[in-house]
Amino acid sequence: MRLFQFLIFSLSFLLFAFITVPVLNLFFVDKHLLFETLKDDEVWGALITTLKGAAFSTILGTLLGVPAAYLLSEYEFKGKEFLESLLNLPIVIPHVAVGVVLLKLLNGKSFLGSLFSHFGITFVDTIYGVVVAMCFVSISYVTVSALLGFRSVDRNLIWSARSLGATPFQVFRFIVFPLTFPYILRGALLSFARAVSEVGALLIIAYYPITAPILMYERFEDYGLKAATPVALLVVLFSLLIFTALLTLSSFLERKNG
Amino acid sequence: MVEISVEKRLKSFTLSVDFRVEKREYLTVIGRSGAGKSTLAKILAGVEKADLGSIRLNGEEISQLPPERRRISYLPQGSSLFPHMTVLENLLFPLKVKGKKDFSAVIELSEKFRIDGILTRKPREISGGEAQRVALARALLSEPEVIVLDEPLNQLDFFTKVELVKELKGLKGKTTVIHVTHDPLEVMELSDRVLLLERGKVSFLGSWRELLERGEGELPSTIRKFFLSL
Question: pTM for the complete prediction?
């Protein structure tokens, strides 16, 4: 028994050390280089592009993912299981392949690419390309989380609400959505985090406007580890800040919902 | 008056019932687990569909109406309070969805059901007995013609159950109640009539005294033995 407990504790300790030590190690950075980086407009531009791209891709993913999750949780139809398994497709496709797939579909000579260009929207090396690539690789997280949320709502509550006079829309508005919101928020948070870290698909479809992970990669390629570290530190700090804020909000809402 | 004549194929038998509940009658529905009692309650509430048949409420066919238009309030098994709302918000819910602005009934009923001291609490902060009292008051606030209760006192301790039975007794003669239960105390204290459901069929419908005296079959005989042993 003691050996079992020892193993559980040791392996858990190793896991948390594995996650935190590399991040903490980032803080041992050349101070001079860090100050230089803080003054570097290209770094701030890349950070803003990343946050902007991730924010828009998360909003787009949530707008598309939540209704789809509701459809899958509420309605019975043929091919539902297949559609559910499709939700995980963006996670299993290698991200460079995602870039290739999107570039093939949305380049200026393709049907869709030329269609969108009529509205002044092009995807190769533009913020639209950044948003689409980020959205593709991250949309599964918010959709699956929303699906879990919708399925977690006790049917008793829905039936009671209906028999108390609520229409299906009122049930959604007053019962289902408020109870599912923490799940949606948590899913959106994961989607955002995933979008921020995207490199593979962006390398292919939208290298520019440059995002922070790509800038990090570029600095590493051109100047080595020392030059890439301060950028990495800034990205990690920003991500941790947003992650903590949203996680706190999500936990607060979950507690509020009882 | 509710006239119920419905059929629904279940896993191992067909629920097939044809009976009538008079206006302001308190009908308890008893039977073994899996006899179709909860399914019957759900069909009445409109949250489950019957394969065929009709439900007429005061002469109007309601089986095709959605639950919110049936004027039947349904308390399912387990907790039915909305966990993200306070007790007061739960009570106001039926008024809010119908766009009603007169809240005097909320005050009146919360006093009557002795829940006026817990209005600002969330369902997780109140006891099981209080939760059922809130659920009952909320059901009444929707001004239903019929209240369908599916084992509402199931998870309560004996003392709380006795208290709640008193509250339910207050409904007698005021509104039509169809109450699914396993509990002899509830049957004796509350029923105007008892409906015994066996494998989806009505095997007895009458007062509980008649059930003890004349009820035929395994279940009435078991119930009779139980009462005689008391």
Answer: 0.85
